[in-house]
Amino acid sequence: MTKKYPSKVSYGLLLFIFLIFYGPLIPNLIENPINGKTLVVVGLLSLVFAFIVHPFLKTKYIIRNKQLDIKFGMFSYQPIDIRNIKEISKTTSKLSSPAPSFDRIEIKYGQFEEVIISPKDQMNFVKDLTEINPNIKTNIVEP
């Protein structure tokens, strides 16, 4: 059984990042004509912005062979054995994680490991994990 869950994305956060990147250029573009130097700066900023946005749009969580695989853009996390998951709970933590949304869940597994993720369909995601490991404690319930 392989199930893929795309990540939920906070577009407000993407807008915030966009404004941080391009906001300082707006007064310069209003006051001065566009020239080669401006185009180079916009081009370089766009490359960096694309590198940052790519993981936002390409994050997914895959349940396969009793393992949870986390793909964060072009990066992959170490697979998590679902049988080692102890607890799944909602979190408001803003720690860096493969979760491009503020609607996040925390997964505790192994001895002291944890990861924060943001699947779009949290209920079915948790249901699929608890079917594999019914010992998982969770406070995520249907609304």
Task: Describe, in plain words, how this protein is organized in 3D.
With 143 residues, the chain is an alpha+beta fold. The protein has a single domain (1-143), classed as PH-domain like (Roll). 36% of the residues lie in helices and 29% in strands. The strands form 2 sheets. Strands 1, 2, 3, 4 and 5 form a 5-stranded antiparallel beta sheet that branches. The radius of gyration is 19 Å and the shape is elongated. 17% of the residues are buried. The model has no long low-confidence stretch (mean pLDDT 90).
List the helices and strands and how they pair.
Layout: E1 2-6, H1 11-22, H2 25-31, H3 36-57, E2 59-64, E3 67-72, E4 75-76, E5 80-81, E6 85-91, E7 104-109, E8 113-117, H4 122-132, E9 137-138
Parallel strand pairs: 6-9
Antiparallel strand pairs: 1-2, 2-3, 3-4, 3-5, 6-7, 7-8
Q: Structural class of the helices, strands and pairings?
A: alpha+beta
In one word, what is the shape? elongated
Low-confidence runs (pLDDT<50, min 5 residues)? none
- What order do the SSEs take from the amino end to the carboxyl end, as H and E? EHHHEEEEEEEHE
Question: Into how many domains do the coordinates divide?
Answer: 1
Measured between the Cα atoms of the first and last residue, the distance is 27 Å
Rg calc? 19 Å
Mean pLDDT: 90
Task: Please describe the biggest sheet, giving its number of strands, its sense, and whether it closes into a barrel.
Answer: 5 strands, antiparallel
- CATH hierarchy class name: Mainly Beta
Question: How many strands appear in the DSSP assignment?
Answer: 9
Helix content: 25-40%
